[in-house]
Design brief:
The protein is an all-alpha fold. The chain has one domain. The longest helix is centred in the middle third of the chain and has 43 residues.
């Protein structure tokens, strides 16, 4: 049962879209993490007694 070129292209596109979605999700998480860590650093800095 050989896939036609069109079937193959559709399948490939679906895979690529999934990869792209995962990459974007990972980027979102990274940004959230970076924001959280910079907020933590600021609060640590603020709590240092003068």
């Amino acid at each position: 049962d050989i896939l036609t070129n069109d079937d193959f292209r559709q399948e490939r596109l679906a895979q690529l879209e999934l990869l792209d979605e995962r990459r974007l999700t990972a980027l979102d998480h990274l940004q959230i993490y970076q924001n959280a860590s910079s907020v933590l650093m600021i609060s640590d800095f603020m709590s240092v007694p003068l």
